[in-house]
Amino acid sequence: MVKIRSLLNNLTIAISLVGVLPVFLYLDWPTQVVFPLALIIGSRSDRRGEYYLSNRTATVLLLLFFAAYA
Questions:
Q1: What stretch of H or E contains 24?
Q2: In whole angstroms, what is the distance from residue 26 CA to residue 37 CA?
Q3: Hey, which end of the chain has fewer CB within 10 Å, N or C?
Q4: Cα pseudo-dihedral 14, 19, 22, 28, rounded to 10
Q5: Predicted confidence pLDDT, tens digits, the chain (70 residues)
Protein backbone atom coordinates (compact mmCIF):
# COMPACT_ATOMS: atom_id res chain seq x y z
CA MET A 1 0.00 0.00 0.00
CA VAL A 2 1.26 3.48 -0.84
CA LYS A 3 1.72 5.76 2.13
CA ILE A 4 0.09 9.16 1.81
CA ARG A 5 3.28 10.93 2.92
CA SER A 6 5.42 9.38 0.18
CA LEU A 7 2.72 10.09 -2.39
CA LEU A 8 2.57 13.75 -1.36
CA ASN A 9 6.39 14.05 -1.36
CA ASN A 10 6.58 12.66 -4.89
CA LEU A 11 3.74 14.93 -6.01
CA THR A 12 5.57 17.94 -4.55
CA ILE A 13 8.74 17.04 -6.45
CA ALA A 14 6.79 16.60 -9.69
CA ILE A 15 4.98 19.93 -9.26
CA SER A 16 8.21 21.80 -8.59
CA LEU A 17 9.83 20.25 -11.66
CA VAL A 18 6.85 21.09 -13.87
CA GLY A 19 6.96 24.68 -12.63
CA VAL A 20 10.70 25.22 -13.10
CA LEU A 21 11.63 23.16 -16.17
CA PRO A 22 10.03 25.46 -18.77
CA VAL A 23 12.01 28.47 -17.53
CA PHE A 24 15.13 26.68 -16.29
CA LEU A 25 17.38 27.93 -19.09
CA TYR A 26 16.34 31.55 -18.42
CA LEU A 27 17.23 31.46 -14.70
CA ASP A 28 20.46 32.89 -13.31
CA TRP A 29 23.26 30.36 -12.97
CA PRO A 30 23.20 30.30 -9.13
CA THR A 31 19.53 29.35 -9.27
CA GLN A 32 20.27 26.69 -11.87
CA VAL A 33 22.76 25.16 -9.45
CA VAL A 34 20.86 25.59 -6.18
CA PHE A 35 17.47 24.32 -7.38
CA PRO A 36 18.54 20.78 -8.35
CA LEU A 37 20.72 20.48 -5.25
CA ALA A 38 17.89 21.61 -2.98
CA LEU A 39 15.47 19.25 -4.69
CA ILE A 40 17.81 16.27 -4.30
CA ILE A 41 18.77 17.05 -0.70
CA GLY A 42 15.16 17.78 0.26
CA SER A 43 13.76 14.60 -1.24
CA ARG A 44 16.55 12.54 0.32
CA SER A 45 15.90 14.10 3.72
CA ASP A 46 12.16 13.44 3.45
CA ARG A 47 12.68 9.80 2.55
CA ARG A 48 15.14 9.19 5.38
CA GLY A 49 13.37 11.39 7.93
CA GLU A 50 16.61 13.20 8.85
CA TYR A 51 16.63 16.95 8.46
CA TYR A 52 19.84 18.97 8.44
CA LEU A 53 18.28 22.23 9.65
CA SER A 54 15.73 23.01 12.32
CA ASN A 55 12.53 24.80 11.30
CA ARG A 56 13.67 28.14 12.69
CA THR A 57 17.12 27.97 11.07
CA ALA A 58 15.64 27.03 7.70
CA THR A 59 13.18 29.93 7.86
CA VAL A 60 15.88 32.47 8.73
CA LEU A 61 18.18 31.21 5.97
CA LEU A 62 15.34 31.31 3.45
CA LEU A 63 14.46 34.90 4.39
CA LEU A 64 18.11 35.96 4.12
CA PHE A 65 18.42 34.23 0.75
CA PHE A 66 15.34 35.99 -0.67
CA ALA A 67 16.46 39.34 0.73
CA ALA A 68 19.87 38.96 -0.93
CA TYR A 69 18.33 37.70 -4.15
CA ALA A 70 15.85 40.60 -4.30
A1: none
A2: 18
A3: N
A4: -110
A5: 678 988 898 899 999 999 999 999 999 998 899 899 989 998 898 888 888 888 899 899 989 988 998 8
